[in-house]
Amino acid sequence: MLRSCIKSTRRYKSITSFSYIDDDFLSTVNKKEISCHLQNLGPFPSYSNILNPQHFYQNQILLDYLQRDPHPVSLRQLAGYGKKLSKQKILDSANFVRIELPIRLALRIRDLQTLPFGIVNNFHLAHIYESYYHLFNAFRKIPSIRSLEENDKFCIIISKLLDDHLTNLAHLMMGSLEVSLLTDINQSELDTFMSQMLRSRMSRRLIVEEHLSLTQSYKDSPNSVKPPHYIGEIFHNCKAIDQLKIVSEAVKNSMVDIFPNKDNMPELEIDGDTKTTFQFIEPHLHYLFGEILRNSYEATIMTHGLHTSKKLPPVKVTIIDSKRQVIFRISDRGGGMPHDKLKSIWSFRKRPELARESLANFHRIPGLSPYTGNEVSPGGSSMVGSVPATSQILKNTSLGDSHFVGQSKKSTLDQLFNRPYKYKLGLGLPVCKVYTDYWNGDLQMNSLEGYGSDTCLTLSKLGYHSNVVQLDRA
C-alpha cells in the first residue's frame, strides 16, 4: 500500500507546478516518513488539537484577552528600570512579563484568524498559529510570582520557551514564500502582515530577554547603580569597523564554493569615522551587515569573477557617525539592477521561480529544522515543557553564566547569517528592512545600472531614541 502511495505521488508530480521539492532534495528525505503525513491534507490538520472549527471560532478565553490593552514599553523605561534594582523590582518585572505576553500573543492569534482561510491554513502559518496559541495558553496559566525562588523557576521556563519557539522565524519566512505561490494575496497585504508579525516577535523576545538580564544582574550585584548611558545588558558595545570585518570574513568563507580563489575576492575597504562605537544587539547587526555584504559580494563576483583571474573590485563602506545616528554606505561595482526592480526587493512577495528556489533552500540550511512540535498533556492542554534539574537547564540560559554581559539567547538570525552562500533565501532585504525600521533606522538602495549599487543603512543610536524605540509594538 505504501509503495503504491509513493508511486501515485510520483505519477502526478507533473501537475504540481508550484512544487519546490525536487528529486535531489527528496533523495535525502525518508519518503516513507513523508507518505505518513498524506492523511493530514484536509481543511484542518488531523494532527492538531488546536486547529479545528470549534477552537477557531468558539474560543472565549482568547476573546477575553483581546479586550485587554498591551502596555506600551519603551527602551528608556526598561533602561531606567534596571539602573538600580531591588527584590520588588525583579518580582514586578517577572509579573509584567507573565501578564503582558498573553495579551500580545492574543493580538497576533487574532490577526492570523482573520486571514483568508487559504492563507492561515498554510502549513507554516498554521504552525505559527498553533505555536502562538500554545505559548498563550502556557503563559496565562503561570501563577503570580511572589519570591525570588519562584522567579528563578519562571526564568527557566521562559528561557526554555524562547528556545523551543526559535523556528517560528523560519516558519514565518517560509509561509510568506508559499503564500506568494499559492494565493492571490496582494503585495501590500502580505508585507503589512509580515512586518507586524516580525516586529511583534522582536518586542516579545526583547521584553523576555530584558527580564532575564535584570534577574542575572541582580544576582551578580544587587546593590549596584548603573551609569547614565545604560540602556540594558542585552545590548552590546559594537565597534563598527570590527563588526564589519567579522561579517565580511564570514560572508567570504560562505562563498568559496562559487569562487574558490578567496584571495581574489573583493576587499572590504572601510573609511570615514572608523572609530565609531555604538550599542546594538549583535545578532541583529550581523544579520543586517551579512545580507547587504552578501548581495554586494555576489553581484561583484557574478559581474567580474567569471571573466578574469585578477583581484575583483572592492566593496567600499563609508561610516558616518552623527550625534543621533550611525550611517553605513556600502558601495559595490556589481553591475547594479534595473530601476523597475528596486521596489520589489523590499517585498516578501516573490516571483514563483524565486519562491520555489528559496523554499527548497530553507530545507537545506544546516542546523535549521523548522519541524518541531509543541508539548501537550495527554488531555491536549498546552504545557511549558518538563523542566530538568535547575543546574542542568541553567547551562543553556543566561542564568547559567556568571555574567550576562556579552551573552544572549539563541537566535535564528545566527543560523541564517551563518548559512552557506548556495542556500539563497530571497528574503534577506525585506527582513532587514523590518529590523531597521523597528530600531528607528532606515535601509535604502540606489542603483546605477551597468555599474553598481549603493546601499545606505541608517541605525539610530539607541541612547538618543530610547523613548521611541518600538518595544510597544505588540
UniProtKB/TrEMBL annotation:
The keyword Transport does not apply. GO terms for biological process: regulation of glucose metabolic process. It holds the Pfam family BCDHK_Adom3. Its EC number is 2.7.11.-. Its main location: mitochondrion. Residues 72-234 form the Branched-chain alpha-ketoacid dehydrogenase kinase/Pyruvate dehydrogenase kinase N-terminal domain. GO terms for cellular component: mitochondrial matrix. It is found in: Mitochondrion matrix. GO terms for molecular function: ATP binding; pyruvate dehydrogenase (acetyl-transferring) kinase activity. Belongs to the PDK/BCKDK protein kinase family. This is Protein-serine/threonine kinase.
